[in-house]
Each structure stands twice: as C-alpha cells, then as structure tokens.
Write a structure and sequence with these properties.
15-stranded antiparallel sheet; 6 helices; 54% strand; disordered N terminus
C-alpha cells in the first residue's frame, strides 16, 4: 500500500511518509525564577545586561521568566522578562537614584524595553514650595533597538522647580535656568528619540506650570502665578497660552497685580525670540518704563508716565546680540 500526494522529494519515495512533509527540528527552552536578587554580577549573565547596568543600575528582588527558541535554519529567538519588585537604581537620564521601583524590563533578540516602570526619586538640594524635601513620583518608558534606534520617555509629577530639576531637561536645562529661573511646581514629560546611531538625537520636554514664578532676564519684575504649558527643546521655549501676574508696586509700596497672557517662542540662545503678550491693568513705574528697550530711560525722564495699560505687546529679538525690539498698542486708563 502506498499513498501519494503528488509531490516528490529528490530522494526516493518512502511511501506514506510523502503525505507529511518533513519538518525542521524545533527546540524551545523556557525558564523562570522568583525572588532573584539582581545586581551587577547577575546582569553580566543577561544579554544586554551591560546596557541595563549602564543606564539603570537596578538592584533588588525580581521575578524572571523567558524562553529560547530555535528552529532549523532560522535565527534563534529569545526573550527575558524581568519584573522589578521594590528595586533601587538610576532613572535613565535623570541623575538621581530611584527607589521603590516597580515595572518590567523586557530583553529580547530585537530590543530592550522598559514598560510601566514607576518609582520615587528625591533630587538633592531641592525642596517643595513649603520648604520640605519630598519624593517625586516618576513614570518611565523606554525602548532600545539593537539597530541603534531608541526612544525614552519619563514623566514626573508635582515636582518642585529648582536648578537641580530644571537641569534634568536634556539639552536645554542650564540655559533655561540661566534665562528664566523657574520656581514653583510643575509636571514634566521628557522625551528623547533617535532613529539610528547616525541620526540627530531629538530632545523634547513638556512642562505644565502651576502657580510658578519666572524671572526673565529681559524684564525687571518676576512673572508670578504662572499657569500653562511650555515646550522646551535644545534652543527654544514655546509658550502656549501661558497666563501670569506681574506685581507692580505703587508709590506707597502696595503691590498692584497686572495680568499677562504669553504666547510664542523664547529663544534660549537669545537671538530669535518672538513673543506676543496681552496685558491688562499694567501700572507704569520708573523701573518698568526704563526697561523698555531703546527709549525707556528717555521716556521716563521727559514724561514720567504713571498710567494703567491694557493692550498687546510684540517682543522680538534678532541678530547675534539678541537686541530686543518692542511694539505695542495700548488703552490708557
């Protein structure tokens, strides 16, 4: 008896075996370990352990499970899932130790991923508005492909703004602190993206300000009770409907708040700013008038205007020296 399937091998037919084509051998190995203590020596045994050690330095208890699968003639597939259980380590680009870290690290033949990682960090030298040091809650997502592409995102909530936390902002932190000196509280989302090792790295940060204070170098008075969103990259701060107050003292020293709404680009390099500002109930003082570029000192010396203003301002800086030009229309009252 012989069954035929109409498909012949080069080799001599083996009868009924021709019905079932020969399969490539497949090997699959699964592994699992619970409450394993992960440290530097343990990471040396994990593929991509050096990358994990360099960027995150995790130490503490973890659960590990994974597989290795091989099929004849095809590349070996493998994956290792590491579940973090109250681990300490580094939070990637943030130069602060994290603790109570929970989440997952997934290492495979294609990439390394951090998923749903949450942790606490305590930045040194930075306190909350009430003066007390407080832990900051962060959320981390990351992907490192073996072809060199990478994506990294970290969200921090209710963080106190100070020089330390502003310097977390990649590519722009020191310049942002130097030119605006933000203080108060905010939510941050930092994003780093690179398509391949030769591509330019893109840095973007979204800062949601809540009752913050900004001190731009270009004006003599701070912006207070600042609320809204700014977007930061290597060179610019984009104001997106940011509202603030500016307190101008009258002759008796009483602070008279004025409302501001700011939109546009503030150039951290100082030469291409373009801001649109709406003002309401802004009281003129000697300090404020003299700060007007080009004519302020002469205007105060000759007219000493003491009025309240409603209107719009256009502030532009162009050229290597970053000279600021101001144009505006106002209603006086």
């Amino acid at each position: 008896f012989q069954a035929e399937d109409g498909i012949r091998d080069v080799e001599r037919s083996r009868g009924l075996g021709d019905v079932y084509k020969r399969q490539d051998p497949e090997l699959r190995l699964e592994f699992q370990a619970e409450n394993l203590q992960i440290d530097q020596s343990c990471l040396q045994l994990i593929p991509a352990g050096s990358l994990i050690r360099r960027n995150y330095q995790p130490e503490g208890p973890v659960h590990v499970k994974g597989f290795i699968a091989s099929k004849g003639g095809q590349p070996t597939k493998w994956q290792c899932d590491v579940t973090l259980l109250d681990v300490t380590g580094r939070a990637g680009i943030i130069p602060a130790r994290m603790r109570q870290a929970d989440g997952n690290i997934v290492v495979s033949d294609e990439k390394v991923m951090l998923r749903d990682l949450t942790a606490l960090v305590s930045p040194p030298g930075c306190a909350s508005p009430d003066g007390e040091s407080m832990p900051i809650s962060i959320e981390v997502e990351a992907r490192h492909n073996w072809d060199g592409a990478r994506h990294y995102s970290i969200a921090a909530h209710d963080i106190p703004l100070c020089k330390t936390t502003i310097n977390w902002i990649p590519g722009a932190g020191p310049a942002l602190w130097d030119r605006l000196k933000p203080q108060g509280e905010a939510d941050l989302r930092l994003t780093i993206q690179q398509q391949d090792p030769k591509a330019k790295t893109l840095y973007k940060t979204r800062v949601t300000l809540r009752d913050a204070t900004l001190r731009p170098r270009e004006i003599p008075l701070p912006l207070e009770q600042v609320n809204g969103t700014i977007l930061v990259d290597r060179h610019n701060v984009i104001f997106n409907d940011v509202n603030a107050n500016i307190a101008v003292a009258n002759d008796t020293g009483k602070a008279l708040p004025a409302g501001l709404a700011v939109q546009g680009r503030y150039d951290l390099d100082g030469d291409r700013s373009d801001l649109q500002v709406r003002v309401s109930n802004l009281r003129t003082t000697e300090e404020l008038v003299e700060a007007i570029p080009g004519c302020g000192e002469q205007l105060w010396r000759q007219a000493k205007p003491q009025v309240a203003l409603d209107g719009r301002l256009s502030l532009r800086a162009q050229g290597a020296d970053g000279d600021l030009s101001v144009e505006g229309t106002f209603d006086l009252h």
